[in-house]
């Protein structure tokens, strides 16, 4: 079968930040690399959606200098004006109505949407979108990956090495059939130890004459609200006032498997109105997105997981070595280095 399907040096599963950075590094080392991504876009939680005549960042709202890799990425993104410093005022709202300034220094926004960052990283990479990997099995001297693919892509490929760059629970579901050796079981046990917190993200649009006096508020120790941001302030061309409301993990847990999210929208808008601005309970239109794997709560201390039982297999993401964007970038780079040691 492997004689009749496309062959690659490396297959990367997932086009989030870690997967994109890893693939780029491997491609620069002259390896033949393909990224298999189940969604239509790239970036994972670096997600922008278009509504009416504007775009909205419903995932990662800004890029922050967290270490060497985020600093280098921001420097690269500033030159073509993909990102710029986020100007304005932000607060942390503590219990007992205690408002504390939270400087926006070191935070950068993308006027064309945060997904522009992922598109920049994806430049010149071979990415098969709407391609959901179903199985990864060793066959001879390569891995065989089968997938539910869009019509223009083959349903199977072969690769000398595989990098799985998706949230840990999804990685576990994909790899749990590979339990033939104790060393693989150890890897799966480590993946199974990772825990993610969910988040409900509400996009709420208001009349253009209604505007907050701040860019963002992080709400501390509230049962329902975690963060509220004035998203449309990032875009000079926006003719609407659009806010993003992020729920707490506890609130989102209640709605993880509920089909109707309208009650969640109303509750979050009502809570935001009570806490921040009275008019927030009367949006002109709303949209909601459920992030099942929003933030790694319990993560691994190492930058990646790897096994060379049968063939090189590496797992990476923002759940390896931390739980932030810096972790994802470091994890992707370190995973590429591990692949290069074996190919």
From TrEMBL:
InterPro entries: Amino_oxidase, FAD/NAD-bd_sf. GO terms for molecular function: oxidoreductase activity. Transmembrane segments: none annotated. Residues 108-340 form the Amine oxidase domain. PANTHER family: FAD/NAD(P)-BINDING OXIDOREDUCTASE FAMILY PROTEIN (PTHR16128), FAD_NAD(P)-BINDING OXIDOREDUCTASE FAMILY PROTEIN (PTHR16128:SF5). This is FAD-dependent oxidoreductase. The lineage of its organism: Bacteria, Bacillati, Cyanobacteriota, Cyanophyceae, Pleurocapsales.
